[in-house]
Amino acid sequence: MIRTLAKQVKEYRNASIVTPLFMLLEVVMETMIPFLMASIIDDGVNTGDIGHIYRVGGLMIVCALIGLSGGMLGGRFGAKASAGLAKNLRASMFEHIQSFSFSNIDKFSPAGLVTRLTTDVANIQNAWQMILKMAMRAPASIICALVMAFMINARLASIYLIAAILLGTALIFLVMHATKYFQQVFPKYDDLNASIEENVSAIRVVKAYVREDHETKKLNKASENIYKLFVKAEHNVIINNPLMQLTVYSCIILISWIGARMIVSSTLTTGELMSLLTYCMNILSSLMMLSMIFVMISMSVASARRICEVLDEEPELVNPEQPVMDVTDGSIRFEHVNFSYHKGSQEHVLTDINLDIHSGETIGIIGGTGSAKTSLVNLISRLYDVSDGQIKVGGVDVRDYDMETLRNQVAVVLQKNVLFSGSIYENLRWGNKNATEEECQEACRLACADDFIRSFPDGYNTHIEQGGSNVSGGQKQRLCIARALLKNPKILILDDSTSAVDTATDARIRRAFREDIPNTTKLIIAQRISSVQDADRIIVMEEGRINGFGTHEELLASNEIYREVYESQTSGGGDFDEKAGD
């Protein structure tokens, strides 16, 4: 874990090194000041030597200025190093997440990844800054103060030493007891973020069903869980303060009492007593700093583990050593393919799939909910890897391709496609960042999106809100189809992507595909028979297996499932999940 995080220091390594050095300089200067103060009192004030007062006073000012400069520079470089570490952590995590396969992403919830990128990284940033500044300053201050105190009077200094040992032991025990609660807190942040994300993304549904009170209670419950854990942890940590105060005042009383008697017996000077009292405060306040460091580290350890879970996650899909960089055509071949989402699982989502699809064909895919239609097409662009068998695109196993090359030639319009904030042009150019305005408009014409776009006051420059919330479901689907067409793919997959489009527009889109992109292999997943009956061939899926594969007429004649669904839909209603006559 430490090695993983240390790699992210990178260009801020020098700042991380000099920060403790500047803090050490500040400590040394602060330690010198009480010693010089004792000299002023004993050798200047008591003897009436004004010159000595000026000389030592000037030296104190120099020490103070040097200490101030050290503290300021330490703070500046510490902030630079900690903020830089946070920046690198976020960038590395985000970049690493982009390399994940769908199976990797499935291991982490979206809310969990957001928490890791925000709250957990902020904890590491704060902890690193405190470690660089206080982890050097506090121990150095304790050591320097103890050394100076023993140089002045070993008998009185032993009081500090005993108090420091007792207080340090107590603080470590309290912090260790509080750590277990801090480790439980941050997973609860995932639940809180998940609740917020779900509520905000589905706010229209929440309002439509008047469930605001329910959602508020759910959020309050998640917040309450975090509150309780923090309170339990803080109940342990807050004992630090009274314990600290008790130790400080006990030491001051003891030193004052014993010191006063030593002054009377002329074994201690007034200046030395003043210095010892100052060192007492330095030592005990430094112990308090150490306790704060322990608390921060205990909080950040849980965050560090969660961050390292992401950074250490190995992408399950990687390029071969010598990848194929060209997809020759859009032919697709499944050879005895089995697939399960979990490695080693004996329960397959897809079982013994054998298909031979020619380049340029239009293939319809229908099946009930849970029949693995989407899983089937996800394997083509290698969003997942098969468990057994192989899939060939253009006559080459998809695992032999460079993944970027393959995915650029396999355009997928997913069931839940989203638009991003920006203009329509900017959204369309996700398909091809170099597409001209004419190419964007031609793609929209094929997707039957051109008409409604031109009806907007700003046309293709219309701003799309985050998630496409200011366009209808059918408009969003058509824009996503146009975006996919701009890739000029050899294979186009529409995963129930016209479900929000009326049947007339659906027919126009399919006709445009047939006439304008005849060489592109088209796979259309649909629930409506009318969306696929004109396809060259149709796949009927049932429980992860191919129940039928043929033309519309062939399936009507030979496939009972297809015939029942066709009759139920053409005789006045029903969908694929309803048996005829139900």
If you had to describe this structure to a student in words, what would you say it looks like?
The chain has 582 residues and is of the alpha/beta class. Strand 4 and strand 5 (396-397) form a beta hairpin. The chain is built from 19 helices and twelve strands. The model is unreliable at 578-582 (pLDDT under 50).
Low-confidence stretches: 578-582
The DSSP helix count reads 19
Strand portion, in percent? Answer: 5-15%
**Broad structural category:** alpha/beta
Morphology call: elongated
Q: How many beta-strand runs?
A: 12
Indicate the radius of gyration in whole angstroms: 35 Å
Oligomeric state of this protein: single chain
N→C terminal distance: 59 Å
Largest sheet, in brief, is: 6 strands, mixed
Mean pLDDT rating: 84
Short description:
With 582 residues, the protein is of the alpha/beta class.
Notable traits:
single chain, 582 residues, alpha/beta, six-stranded mixed β-sheet, four-stranded antiparallel β-sheet, 62% helix, disordered C terminus
Give the SSE layout:
Elements: H1 2-6, H2 13-45, H3 50-98, H4 102-105, H5 110-152, H6 154-201, H7 203-208, H8 212-237, H9 240-264, H10 270-311, E1 332-339, E2 350-357, E3 362-367, H11 373-378, E4 388-393, E5 396-397, H12 403-409, E6 410-413, E7 422-423, H13 424-428, H14 437-446, H15 450-454, E8 463-464, H16 473-485, E9 491-495, H17 503-516, E10 521-525, E11 537-542, E12 545-550, H18 552-558, H19 560-570
Parallel strand pairs: 3-10, 3-11, 6-9, 9-10
Antiparallel strand pairs: 1-2, 1-4, 4-5, 7-8, 11-12
Helix pairs in contact: 2-3, 2-5, 2-10, 3-5, 5-6, 5-10, 6-8, 6-9, 6-10, 9-10, 14-16, 18-19
